[in-house]
Design goal:
This protein is mostly helical. The protein has 2 domains: about 140 residues, no CATH class; about 190 residues, Farnesyl Diphosphate Synthase. The chain has 15 helices and no strands.
């Protein structure tokens, strides 16, 4: 998640006697801005999310707006960005959640909409607290020592998003919630690999020290490659092959959980996961040259994946495949 820290939704006052639930007019006004935020800054997920039922899509887009806006607040450090101001806003959100989300939030109408979603879908406050803690760690980024530390960070900034979304999608089983968390982690691992170059340009390295050392690399080695702009060497390629293999493992684990969702929510989540997984393939096609270019999926790829997902969903509904493991074979074919 990366974009503009100053994105704000239009303010909307509330007169005495009005319900705490946002009105239809309020939703229409704000959802237009939220849809624009998603379409502009989350193109892959935006493409997949259009296949949600209308009511579910509205809730998903609103929840995305919260996570995206706060993430951008930390990530995008343009002119006027102040670490202390951002830290104070994160603290204010923590306090707002701790007080039961009953007062005006640090950003409105974002808080009003989020409070409504939290009450409607009973999303635990701890999920948002963990997310905010992950964002705070990005204010003073410290390179992970090992994968356990990286996994914890990925859970905080992305696994939490998957879990929160699972409540909106009507998930009740622990197995499905775990799959949602793992899909968020798979996507964050993909983000880290895709954005290695841009992160290096601002002094951030998320890959664990122990794994860099294992492949004969280091933060200094990565920085030299980035500054030279001559492409990856063999040590870097070996490191990337290992990272991609692990990210694919998390996709395999999580995408099997798609079939635990209600039928009308399976397709968009499976499509989002497959499209994000395709970014790994694009990295491989570029010979792992993520230090000079940003891998992305084309519209042709998106349309092709949409067709595959429609077919997989149809096979499942018609009983022609009977288990997620069997569908995973179809994925690879």
């Amino acid at each position: 998640m990366k974009s503009n820290p100053h994105i704000k939704l239009p303010a909307q006052g509330k007169t005495s006697g009005e319900s705490d639930m946002p009105s239809d007019c309020f939703w229409t006004l704000t959802s237009t801005r939220q849809e624009h935020l998603l379409a502009t800054h989350g193109k892959t997920f935006s493409f997949a999310a259009r296949f949600f039922p209308t009511a579910v899509r509205r809730a998903v887009v609103s929840l995305y707006a919260f996570f995206r806006t706060l993430d951008d607040l930390v990530d995008e450090r343009g002119e006027g960005w102040c670490r202390n101001d951002v830290g104070q806003e994160l603290d204010a959100w923590h306090y707002w959640f701790a007080c039961g989300a009953r007062s005006d939030a640090p950003r409105e109408p974002l808080g009003t909409i989020l409070a409504s979603l939290q009450e409607t879908y009973q999303i635990p406050v701890a999920i948002f607290d963990d997310f905010l803690d992950g964002l705070r760690s990005d204010l003073e980024p410290v390179q992970a020592r090992d994968f356990l530390e990286l996994y914890h960070y990925c859970y905080q900034v992305a696994g939490t998003v998957g879990i929160a979304m699972s409540y909106v999608l009507g998930v009740h089983s622990e197995q499905a919630r775990l799959a949602a968390k793992q899909l968020g982690i798979a996507m964050q691992l993909t983000n880290i690999l895709r954005d290695l170059g841009s992160d290096l340009s601002v002094g951030r390295i998320y890959l664990p020290c122990s794994e860099l050392e294992h492949f004969g690399s280091s933060s200094q080695h990565l920085l030299r490659l980035y500054q030279a702009q001559k492409g990856p060497d063999e040590r870097f390629r070996a490191l990337m092959r290992y990272q991609i293999q692990r990210a694919r493992f998390y996709y395999q684990e999580s995408l099997q959980g798609v079939w635990l969702l209600t039928p009308d929510c399976r397709l968009p989540i499976l499509l989002a996961g497959r499209l994000y997984r395709n970014i790994l393939r694009e990295i491989e096609r570029s010979q792992y040259d993520v230090l000079r270019q940003r891998a992305s999926t084309s519209w042709l790829t998106k349309l092709g994946e949409a067709g595959i997902v429609f077919l997989l969903d149809l096979l499942w509904r018609n009983g022609e495949v009977t288990s997620p493991a069997e569908l995973e074979c179809v994925y690879e074919e």
